[in-house]
Amino acid sequence: MQWYVVASLLTVLTSSQGILTTLSQSDGSYKYDYATVPFLAEIFKLLVSSILLRRECLRSPPPLMTTDWKSIRLYPIPSIIYLIHNNVQFATLTYVDTSTYQIMGNLKIVTTAVLFRLFLRRKLSNLQWMAIFLLAIGTTTSQVKGCGETSCDSLFSSPIPGYMLGVLSACLSALAGIYTEFLLKKNNDTLYWQNVQLYTFGAIFNMARLILDDFRGGFEEGPWWQRLFNGYNVITWMVVLNLGSTGLLVSWLMKYADNIVKVYSTSMAMLLTMILSIILFSFKPTLQLFLGIIVCIMSLHMYFAPAHMLVDLPVPAKTAPETLVEVSVDRKTDS
Amino acid sequence: MQWYVVASLLTVLTSSQGILTTLSQSDGSYKYDYATVPFLAEIFKLLVSSILLRRECLRSPPPLMTTDWKSIRLYPIPSIIYLIHNNVQFATLTYVDTSTYQIMGNLKIVTTAVLFRLFLRRKLSNLQWMAIFLLAIGTTTSQVKGCGETSCDSLFSSPIPGYMLGVLSACLSALAGIYTEFLLKKNNDTLYWQNVQLYTFGAIFNMARLILDDFRGGFEEGPWWQRLFNGYNVITWMVVLNLGSTGLLVSWLMKYADNIVKVYSTSMAMLLTMILSIILFSFKPTLQLFLGIIVCIMSLHMYFAPAHMLVDLPVPAKTAPETLVEVSVDRKTDS
After folding, report:
1. Facing residue for A147 by CB, picked from B147, B285, B298
2. Cα separation of A94 and A249, whole Å?
3. What is the interface size between A and B, counted as CB pairs within 8 Å?
């Protein structure tokens, strides 16, 4: 499968995630515990990967699987980074408001590219660096509060630790992605086996979070396994399946494409969500959304288009198309 | 002189034009007739060009000067286009508000590039086209009304003829620039002679406007030559000299560089004015101004940087620097 097909699918699914999550509310609030969604999504991903791995194991030759502890022990690391990230995110939000947090989230695009260069030692051209910055600027532009909207003035007025935590948050989020790419590409193990390891630890860490929530809440609503499906409706299940599917696609992209492709995919999804919100929830379109979308599309073209499409290069002299000449001679003889 | 020195000077002078014009107000209003400023600026440009032309004529060999009517009759055309443009601009403003008009003004960047391609047959690379669009997007982004500002909602709500006139206005403004470039480059006449022709007609058309204003106003304040310097102070004179100087620089750029350089120069000036306004008039900086500036700087780099700086091209193998080797050998013998 071509990477851009997977990336496009990821864009569509990620953008529907936001829409579905909004639709899963009843009377403007969530009737279910949102923390159960990522746990169930991990279980879904684990199930799908296990089935696919089993199918592959029955074939010959059997797939490559590194099973020694030295390799397996690396797989909880992305989960651990995400755990730290979630706590930093929580701390950040005590200093800054959600819209400032959202704006700072675009930093992740730049930090991912920086870590991609530093840790994975992948070189980007000058133009690709500019494309990365433009993507971050485009997404930020699209989020600029419209004229007349409420809750103004908060953007440049948060305390300094808020911004520092926001930067740390962007770095951690990027690090988790970069580490996952390193993990999936470091050997030729089958992706399904790598996924099984990733999602097993993912499920464990998500379960730990649910248990922790129980202790924090003093078991007021009973233990997590009793309230697991409380308030679930069809759309909630769609949210779970959708989140699981996007996870599987991200994992595929990390193995066969890279983090930058994933970043473009999810950034485009954010813009698509905003466009869909205009149609579905009659949000008012702003000029800055329109401008941001154009900037992001240009960035996409700048990053992925081959150099000869962008700048005028001396085209290497082609050899004479002899077959074509022969064909036309044939035709003349025929008529 | 290098074109980028002239372009930078144009940026500084154009941006100070806005600042000076604001400073030339007394008690928040203009005490002088603003229509007299461009007329006096034309006279200033005519004087400077005449003096420089005369000096050049005294040298040998004398400069090239085409003096037949067939050539001279082309020189009022830019003034005529500007005259039509001013009327279209006036008509546009009856349909749209000033901030919508300002936003639409950025279209001029794109129309200039289009006419540059069509009429002057100058090819731009794919990347340069993207840079042009990014410049227009960047300047537009910087002008997006901030959250909480007054007079909202008007941007997408003007009647259709307003937008059509805005596009026409952008085309006419670009056409005047492109035509001037064609005029100045069509032969090897000295720039000073070409300027004398341009500004003579410029002065005539500006005078005609002042006369027309007199008739429209019923000579209530007397004929234009009596009220020419009414309410002028030192800053008003600086506005005149500044406008005249920018005109001379633009003319130089049209002859020795091109319209795109001029467009970059004036767009950067607009951003510089906004930055200076923050410092001088304590305007509140917005996130969109910051984003717009970065986009414009990237656009500048994309347009003017040589291809090998932007994309990774195979570098042609260099010949061994033999002279350098010889020098070092010489030195060794000397010591």
Report:
1. B147
2. 33
3. 109
In degrees and rounded to multiples of 5, residue A125 shows phi and psi of -75, 165
Q: Do A127 and B313 touch (CB under 8 A)?
A: no
Which of A130, A291, A310 has its CB closest to that of B126? A310
CB contact under 8 Å between A137 and B312, yes or no, is no
Structure tokens at A274: 């905003």
Whole-angstrom Cα distance, residue B274 to residue A4? 41
A293: Cβ contacts below 8 Å, ≥ 6 apart: A138, A142, A271, A275
Classified as helix, coil or strand, A314 is: coil
Q: What are the phi and psi torsion angles at B124 (to 5°)?
A: -115, 145
Contact (CB<8Å) A311/B152: no
Residuewise pLDDT in 10s, chain B (335 residues): 799 999 999 999 999 998 898 888 888 788 888 889 999 999 999 999 999 999 999 998 889 999 999 999 999 999 999 999 999 998 998 998 888 888 999 999 999 999 999 999 999 999 999 999 999 999 999 998 876 665 565 566 788 999 999 999 999 999 999 999 999 999 999 999 999 999 999 999 999 999 998 898 888 878 888 888 888 989 999 999 999 999 999 999 999 999 999 999 999 999 999 999 999 988 888 899 999 999 999 999 999 999 888 887 765 555 444 444 444 444 444 43
Position of tokens 């990365």?
A: A132
CB pairs under 8 A, 24+ apart, for B196-199? B196/B46, B196/B49, B196/B50, B196/B53, B197/B72, B197/B75, B198/B75, B198/B78, B198/B79, B198/B251, B199/B42, B199/B45, B199/B46, B199/B49, B199/B247
Which residues share a beta bridge with A29?
A: A26
Q: What single string gives the DSSP state of each residue in B236-272? A: HHHHHHHHHHHHHHHHHHHHHS-HHHHHHHHHHHHHH
ipTM of the complex: 0.86
If we measure between CA atoms, which residue out of B146, B299, B185, B238 comes closest to residue A153?
B146
For A68-88, write each residue's pLDDT tens digit: 999 999 999 999 999 999 999
Q: What is the CA radius of gyration of chain A?
A: 24
Compute the distance between CA of residue A99 and CA of residue A91 in angstroms, rounded to an integer. Answer: 15
pTM of this structure: 0.88
